[in-house]
Amino acid sequence: MDKKNKFDVIVVGAGFAGMYALYKLRKLGLQVKVYEAGSGVGGTWFWNRYPGARCDVNSLEYSYQFSDELQQEWNWSERYSGQPEILEYANHVADRFELIKDIQFNTRVLELDYNENTNRWSGKTDQGDRFDTQFCVMATGCLSKHNVPDIEGLDRFQGELLHTGKWPHTPVDFKGKSVGVIGTGSSGIQSIPIIAEQASSLTVFQRTPNFSIPAHNAPMDKNHEAAVKRNYREFRKENALQRAAIRMTPNPESALAVSQIERDTVFEKNWLKGGLPFSASFSDIGVSLDANATAVDFVHRKIKGLVDDPEVAEKLCPKTVIGCKRLCVDTGYYETFNRANVNLVDIKKHPIKCVTESGVSTSTGDHKFDALVLATGFDAMTGAILSIDIKGQGKQTLATRWEAGPKNYLGLTINGFPNLFTITGPGSPSVLSNMIVAIEQHVDFLSELLKFMQKNAKEKVEASLNAEDDWVDLVNNIADQTLYTSGCNSWYIGANIPGKPAVFMPYIGFPTYVEKCKEIVSDNYRGFEFS
Ligand code: FAD
Ligand code: NAP
Fold it and tell me: Which domain holds residue 280?
């Protein structure tokens, strides 16, 4: 193979994970090359350009901390910054750390094949490139393979068909148009209020209602920003001790230990603060059905207070426990259903029969649209990795290995797939944490591991089978003590993708995960096999 196609490391993906992996691994003196399917950096923030797209973790936290110069010089304009600003930040990071020269854009990796004789991986891209590398870093994203639902006739639609996860790069103008939106997860909930303001009419097709907490987004409080920047390191350190590595003030009290009036006072305070910290209102909301029911009752009352039509309000009230699906964070979502141009269709009751040339046909009639928006989410956590044909030791494919659900060690390394790493893979805190924090922790761990190998002249590393089995058991045991596995049809267990194995994928608890990683390293990388 031509020398120019031989690398020490190839990184797949140039979102926040791939960008940081490139920055960090280059520092080890390794020759690193990144392949990215999109035409720019930013990953999630490159693809999800739908109206209203913004982070639901405070911007002072949803940003890199590896460079103090970077975190001091960058100023966020809002409490929860919008997609354009986050993308601008990603581009700034790419320029500042000279990342672009090692990234090949518009290139999708299709195949990765491990050769046992050479202990190297060979790969192929959709642009016809072939490459050879010792290490593969999968920075392919937990939420990057968008899910197009299998609805009959979708390809027949003659109007504008859009997906929130693959939004056009040119502005979409809904002014004067009749629009349909399918899906009421975070993407639907963020985009619906804005589409409703522009469109002449909007019909929302809801299969399962979701809980949403108001963001109370606002321009960045400059005094707060300055205070954080004066002590950024300490701020980050404190946040990393929180369960989701997101700044909250968890209430140690049980929701069941106080009177309804006291409980409502706490819920009301957190509702007014807004965002994800609502889930930390009491200590047992995530583990006790009775405690959870008190939060459900509070949010139901809020929805009924915000939505004028009692029938519509009832349809919008989720009947599941709160928090077993990702909590949504909105700006004016429930209020949008008071608008005269907005209509809510419960498609559990009145299923979509098919999409026609002019719109959507349900059991109660036809809806005609100029534009149809699919806010139908992602094949989460495993979708992007398994879209690549990965063959490990003995030519076993990863798809076969993970047929019954993903198995790995620390969410990072897979037995039988040496020298291949998954950044924020299933089995790591990933989507149940501030993801930029989780990304940095994983890349730092990997960098130390490769340094250890360089120092000890090791060429090959993989998880032992026992370590992997124990890890998967641990991830499941932790989840089973919570309400995440209480029967919710969440993407955390793959329930949104027909035929996907029902396995709870993320590790719950960022601080305990970090402690486990440290303990494993200090025990000579227990569970890792080197040769
Ligand atoms: P991604 O950003 O998904 O990047 C993966 C990249 O890999 C993509 O650019 C993709 O094109 C590329 N890729 C995949 N497969 C291939 C291949 N075979 N070949 C070449 N390239 C490939 N998390 C939070 O913590 N807080 C938030 O507020 C938040 N908001 C979000 C809002 C939206 C709309 C979405 C969808 C997710 C949000 N997330 C949030 C999660 C978000 O995905 C992560 O925070 C983070 O951006 C993930 O970075 P990443 O680099 O791991 O993956
Ligand atoms: P999602 O949460 O999976 O929501 C998808 C929606 O589409 C659900 O309402 C789902 O209904 C519906 N749906 C899926 N397939 C369908 C079908 N065949 N027919 C009808 N309806 C269908 O996806 P998302 O909203 O894109 O969010 C995914 C994740 O990305 C979030 O949970 C979050 O982690 C992240 N995100 C964050 C933000 C943010 O606020 N910063 C914004 C967007 C995304 P069911 O519930 O019945 O399956």
Answer: 154-374
367 and 247 within one domain:
yes
Q: Give, for ligand 2, the residue of 44, 55, 207, 319 to mutate: max count of ligand atoms closer than 8 Å to Cβ.
A: 207
Do 322 and 190 share a structural domain?
A: yes
d(CA 354, CA 359): 9
What are the backbone angles phi and psi of residue 239, rounded to the nearest 5°?
-65, -35
Mutate to test the pocket of ligand 1, among 435, 439, 443 (most ligand atoms within 8 A of CB): 435
Give tens-digit pLDDT for 391-442.
Answer: 999 999 999 999 999 999 999 999 999 999 999 999 999 999 999 999 999 9
Report pLDDT digits (tens) over 437-480.
Answer: 999 999 999 999 999 999 999 999 999 999 999 999 999 999 99
Q: What is the Cα–Cα distance from 124 to 104, expressed in whole angstroms?
A: 13
How far apart (Å, rounded) are the C-alpha atoms in residues 507 and 432?
8
Separation of CA 143 and ligand 1 centre (Å): 5
- 209 and 161 within one domain: yes
Total domains in the fold of the chain: 2
Same domain, 412 and 465: yes
Alpha-carbon separation of residue 85 from 45, 50, 54, 81, 438 (angstroms): 9, 13, 9, 6, 21
Q: How far apart are CA 354 and CA 363, in angstroms?
A: 10
CATH number at residue 466: 3.50.50.60
